[in-house]
Amino acid sequence: MQQPTGGSVDSASASVRAVLDRLVAAWERHDAEAYGELFTEDASYVTYVGTFYRGRRDIVDSHRTLFAGFLKGTRLADEVLDVRFYGPDVAVANGRGDTYKGKRPAKPTKVQTYTLVRDPDGQWRIAAFQNTKRKPLMESLSHRFAPGLVPSSER
Question: Is the pTM of this model over 0.90?
Answer without folding.
Answer: no
